[in-house]
Amino acid sequence: MAAKSRDGHVWTPVGGFTTGIETDAVISPQTSISTSHNNVYDVVVIGAGYAGLAAVRDLCNQKQSVLLLEARDRIGGRTYTAKKDDFLYEMGGTWVTHHMGYLFREMVRYGMDRDLITTGSPNMEKGFYTINVAGVNPRKLSHEEAGAMQAKAWDMFVNVDGQYGRTICPLPHAQLDNPIVPRSTVEQWDKVSCQDRFEEIKHKLTSEEQGLLVSLLLHISGGNLEDSSLWDMVRSHALLMHSSDNFTDVWLRYKLRDGQTELAKRMFQEAKNDGLNFAFSTPVASIKQSASGDGPVTIRTVNNQTFRGRKVISTIPLNVLKDIQFSPPLSQRRQEAINIGHINHMTKVHADVSNKELERWNRMRFPGHLMYGYADGALPNGDVHIVAFGKDDRETFIPENDANKTIDALNDLHPMHVKRLLLHNWSTDPYSKGGPAWWRPGYMSKYQDELQSRHGNILFASADWAHGWRAAIDGALEQGTLNARTAFQENNNVRPKDNIVGNLLTRALSMCVPHSYDDIAVTRLIRGEFDRTKVPQHPVPHMMPSTGDHESKPAGGIKIINASLFRMGTKSMAEAYTILGYRTHHAIDDPFTVPWHLIEEAAEGKWPDVPGARPRRPYTRSDWDAIWGSYDVVTDVASPFTMDLAQAYPDAIFVVVQRDFDSWWSSFESEVLGWCFFRGAQPLVAIFSIFGLRSGNALRKCFLGFFNAKSLEDIKSNAREAYDRYFNDVRRLIPEERRLEHKLEAGWAPLCAFLGKEIPDVPFPRLNDRAAHTAHSRANFRNSLSLVVRNVLYWMVGVFFVGYLAWYLQGHLFSRD
Ligand SMILES: Cc1cc2nc3c(=O)[nH]c(=O)nc-3n(C[C@H](O)[C@H](O)[C@H](O)COP(=O)(O)OP(=O)(O)OC[C@H]3O[C@@H](n4cnc5c(N)ncnc54)[C@H](O)[C@@H]3O)c2cc1C
C-alpha cells in the first residue's frame, strides 16, 4: 500500500473530510545526506516538482554534488498521483501530449512514451454532453455537437489576426523575441484582457455559446476575465498548432497509464542512483549570498538548518516566492512581479459516484462553483470516476471545508450519488498558493525576462515562467533542464573552446562555407547550444588587472551603465569602478575572451541593414544577460547599446562621461576606427573570423550601425550627428535622478557620492592615453596573427598526417601484392 502524504483531502460519508492521501510520491526515508558533502554543494536545488527533478537528475548525471530541498513529504510538486482501491487519481497536472518536447523526451527516456491511456471511457462517443447556461434551457448534446460548439466559440475568440494567431504568435516558445514579429507588436497584444476580447466578439455568439466560451476561459485561466490575459489564450492556441482540431488531443485526452508519480519517481531514482542528497519536509525560509557574488550561497530552512551551494536553483512557484527572504534583496522589478503573482486559483475535485449512466458523460454549467465535469473511467468496483473543475471562487467556496457545498456543486452539474471525494486545494496549499500559472494582461511584457533571469548565483526555474508550455509539465521540465545546464557549465567553466571535436568541425565548416553559412549557428548547433536565449553565461574574465580575479561571479544584472563612447576615459572609469568593488567589463583590450559573436549578433539585431548583417531579432534581457549578466558595470563595447540596455535593466543607473567632440574624434578616428577600417582590413577580418576571432566583425558592425553608415566615409560624415544623438538620447530618456554627469578631473568625490561609496584611499585612475592604447592595439593585432598562424600550422600538420596515413595504408595494407 502506498504511504500517506500530508497533502490532499479525502471525504467519505462516514469519515467526512480527512487530510492526507495515499500516494507513491512520498519519499522514505525523508532525508539522505552524505556527510562528505556537508560543506558546499555544487548545486542546491529547491523544490522536487518536475523543474527540480529535471535539474537534479541532469546535474547528478554530470557528477555534480547536489542537494535537493523540498518542503513537502513527497516528489512531484503540483503533480502527484493518489492511489485508492487500485485506482489512480491525478491531483494536479494530468494531461500529456507528444507535442510537449521536453516531456516526451522524459517519457521516452523512461520507456513510458507508449504507456498512455485516454480520458473518459471506451465508446465515449456513444455517451452524451449536457450544457446548462443561465437563461437558456439545459439540454443534451452529442459529444460531437458540443465539440463543434466549443470549437466555434474558441476559434472566434483566439482568431485575433484572421490567421488564428499565426501572425502574432508564430513560435510559442519565442513569444517576445522571435524573428518574425517585433516585440512592440507582441507587447500591444499582451495588454488585452480576455474580457476586452470577449466584449468584442460576444454579439456574434448565441447565449449558449457565450456561456460555453466564458466557462472555458475561466476553466483554463483559473481566474476571472478582466485579470486574465488574452495573450495566454493566443499562446495556448499556438501550442495547439494554431488549430482547435487539436484542442482535445493536446489538452485533455492522454494521461500516463501509471500516473505522473511514476514518471517523477523514475527521474528521482536516477538522480538518487547518481548520488543525490536530499531532505524532504524541509521548507526553505531564506537564501543569502554576498553582495559581491563571492563565495557560496547560504540557504536557511524554516527549521533553522543551513546548507550551502556554489549555485542554487530555486523552483519555488511564483506565488510562493514572496515568503522567501533574499539577501541581497531581489531586484525591484522581480519583487513587483512576485507581489502581483499569477491569477490561477482553479478548483479540481475528483468524485466517485455510483451512477453508471454517467460513464460516458461530460458536462458544462455556467455559472457554478464547478463548471466542467468529465467522466474519467470506472473503478474496479464499478463506480464511475468524475473529475470536475471550477474557477477562482476562493471567497465563497473552499471545498475541503464544506463537503455539502462540494456535493451540491457536483449535483448542479448532474444529479449524482457521491460516494467519495478526493481533492487538493492548490490555493490554500502554502507551497503552491495557486494552480498552473496564468498571467495578467501586460505581465509577460513587463516581467517575463526578469523572472527568467538570475539573481547572482541563484537561478530561477519554474513552469510559471517557462518559454513555451508555461503553466504545464513541459514548461517545468524545460526550466529545470535549461537552468541545470547553466549551473553545470558555470561551475565547471565549460567554455565553447573546451569542445574540441565541435571546434574542429566548426572550423572545417567555416572554412568550407565561411560566409554563405551562419557559422555561429553552426558552432552552437555542434556545441549543443540550441537555445540562443540561454547561451551559457560562461564566465568572461575581468579585463582589469587590479581585480586579480579571473572567475565569473554573476551579479543578477547590470547595475551601472557607463554612458560614454570609446576613447572617452572608459578604461580609467572601468578601473575606478573596479577599485570601488564592482565587477566591471571593459572589453576593447582583449579580443580573445569577450563573446564577440554575441556582440556581433546584438549589432545585427539592432541594425539589420548594416553591411554583412544576417537576419536577427533584437536582443532582449536574457540575451544581454548572456553577455554581461555577470557584471555590475559595463563600459566601452556596451556603449553602442546604451539605450537598449537601459530598457533591459530598468533599475540600472548611468554615469555619463562626455569628452568634447573635436578632441574625442581625433583620438577615436586614429586609435579605434584606424584599427578596424585600415586598407586591407576586410580580408584580414574574414581570415580572423574563420579562426573564431570575431572582434573585427563585431566592432565593424557596431560602428557602422552606430554611425548609421555603410562605409568608413559615411562614419566620418555622420560622426558629429551620431555623437550628438547619443548624448541627447541619454539625457532625454534617462531621468536626472538616475544619472551622474561626470568628468574624470572631478575625481572620486562626485562618483562616490552618486554610488553611495566611501572615497578610496588611492588616486583616481588615469589610464590608457593614446600611446598606451596604440601599444595595446598593436599587441592585440600581433596576438591575433600568431593565433591564426598557429592554427594554420595545426591544419597543415593534420592534412599532412592524414595524407601520409592514406599513402601508407594504400601501400602496405591494401596493396594487391
Ligand atoms: C490542478 C492542476 C492541473 C494541472 N493540469 C495540467 C495538465 O493537465 N497538464 C500539464 O502539462 N500541466 C498541468 N498543470 C500544471 C503543471 O502541473 C505545473 O505547471 C508543473 O507541474 C509545475 O512544476 P514546477 O516544478 O515548476 O513547480 P511545482 O510542481 O510547484 O514544484 C515546486 C516545488 O517547490 C516546493 N516548494 C515550494 N516552496 C518551498 C520552500 N519554501 N522550500 C522548499 N520547497 C518548496 C513545492 O513543494 C514543490 O514541490 C496543472 C496544475 C494544477 C495545479
Overview of the structural elements:
The structure is a single chain. With 817 residues, the chain is an alpha/beta fold. The chain has six domains: 22-115 and 257-342 and 433-482, FAD/NAD(P)-binding domain, CATH 3.50.50; 124-256, Polyamine Oxidase, Chain A, domain 2 (Alpha-Beta Complex), CATH 3.90.660.10; 347-423, 2-Layer Sandwich (Alpha-Beta Plaits); 501-530; 532-659 and 723-756, Rossmann fold (3-Layer(aba) Sandwich), CATH 3.40.50; 773-817. It is built from 25 helices and 28 strands. Strands 2-1-22-18-21-20-19-10-11 form a nine-stranded mixed beta sheet, sandwiched between helices. Strands 3, 4, 5, 13, 14, 15, 16, 17 and 23 form a nine-stranded mixed beta sheet that branches. The chain is elongated. Residues 508-555 have low confidence and may be disordered. The structure holds flavin-adenine dinucleotide (FAD). Flavin-adenine dinucleotide is lined by residues 46-52, 69-72, 77-79, 92-95, 283-284, 315-317, 320, 324, 346, 348, 426, 431-432, 435-436, 462-463, 471-474, 476.
Task: Give the secondary structure arrangement, pairings included.
Blueprint: E1 4-12, E2 16-22, E3 31-32, E4 41-46, H1 50-61, E5 66-69, E6 81-84, E7 87-90, E8 95-96, H2 101-109, E9 116-118, E10 128-133, E11 139-141, H3 143-158, H4 183-190, H5 194-201, H6 207-221, H7 230-239, H8 247-253, E12 254-256, H9 260-273, E13 277-279, E14 284-288, E15 297-301, E16 306-314, E17 325-327, H10 332-340, E18 347-353, E19 361-366, E20 372-378, E21 384-390, H11 403-413, E22 418-423, H12 443-452, E23 458-460, H13 473-491, H14 500-512, H15 519-527, E24 560-563, H16 570-579, E25 584-585, H17 596-606, H18 621-628, E26 633-634, H19 642-648, E27 653-657, H20 661-677, H21 681-690, H22 695-706, H23 712-733, E28 739-742, H24 748-755, H25 770-812
Parallel strand pairs: 4-5, 4-16, 5-13, 10-19, 14-17, 16-23, 24-26, 24-27, 25-26, 27-28
Antiparallel strand pairs: 1-2, 1-22, 3-13, 6-7, 8-12, 9-12, 10-11, 14-15, 15-16, 18-21, 18-22, 19-20, 20-21
The chain binds flavin-adenine dinucleotide.
Catalytic activity: a secondary aliphatic amine + O2 + H2O = a primary amine + an aldehyde + H2O2
Pfam family, one: Amino_oxidase
EC number: 1.4.3.-
